[in-house]
Amino acid sequence: MKSFLNVEDLGSLRQALAEATEIKNNRFKYVEKGRNKTALLVFFNNSLRTRLSTQKAAQNLGMNVIVLDVNAGAWKLETEHGVVMDGDKSEHLLEAIPVMGSYCDIIGIRSFASLTDREYDYAETVYNQFVKYSGRPVFAMETATVHPLQAFADLITINEWAAKRPADRPVKVVLTWAPHPRALPQAVPNSFAQWMLAAQAPGAALPQGIEFVITHPIGYELDPKFTKGATIEYDQMKAFKDADFVYAKNWSCPGVSRIEAYGRVLNDYDTMLDWTVSARQMDVTNNAHFMHCLPVRRNMIVTDDVIEAPTSLVIPEAANREISATVVLKRMLDALNSH
Ligand code: CP
What we know:
It is a single chain. Helices cover 36% and strands 14% of the residues. It is of the alpha/beta class. Helix 2 links the parallel strand 2 (38-43) and strand 3. Phosphoric acid mono(formamide)ester is lined by residues 47-50, 142, 150, 293-295.
């Protein structure tokens, strides 16, 4: 595997989940695979979970790890081509990337969406420059449009907890938009939708399959590239009915039906608070598990009682980030070691 951005990059999800279980049962089984190999983790944006879990994953595999916070100590990087660099950016990404590649064997990138230029963001411009110029396998640690390590951890979590429910029908998984005071990217919901749809068929990932529903206010339609085939239900209460898993996330306008509104918050404060996940919605579910990628704004996205309920999975979900990252890095090391 030379790039990890989309669900297809991982191949069979059933196989990937089996590897996740194997690694969870023995995290250091493959500790020799990464001997004398270095992972460079490049952060253009803040992180808690991705930073810690990916380092831990690399260490599980015996790798050396270098973490670079581009905005804390490195030269400020220009990412646009053809600009006259007479401002505050001292180095161009086109020199910085091959230099970074010369110090490592695998590179992870966190680079969020600009939320101002949809074409630039959805072309995955920064990630693809790393693929093109680093000479190294590259994996996404949340890019402009996707967060596959999160979605893989989410699928691992759903697989584990679905196994405790009766298998006589597909588990119902609901992705719900939830309020946030700031405009946020679409990477997490894009990937979650992409991975749930890939896992939907019985046997593709879970034995019983998945019924996948997305609910959000009008105007927040995600790019069909990620959601084609999903059921969209604009009535949140209807969507929640009989759900087994509720996955909450805020996202700004994806600009699908209104390109001029790309990256904006569309609704006013009071209206959007109707979408906060609370006991009102959870009461119509099938005693659903609550999920969120974290960090989460309490009593905006979800009420205290829901996130603190015994059915909340936010902590095991975050813990599974170590597992998803270990599987992905192991696959990349396998590809490197086979050359
Ligand atoms: N879920 C997630 O990616 O968390 P961080 O932004 O803290 O890495």
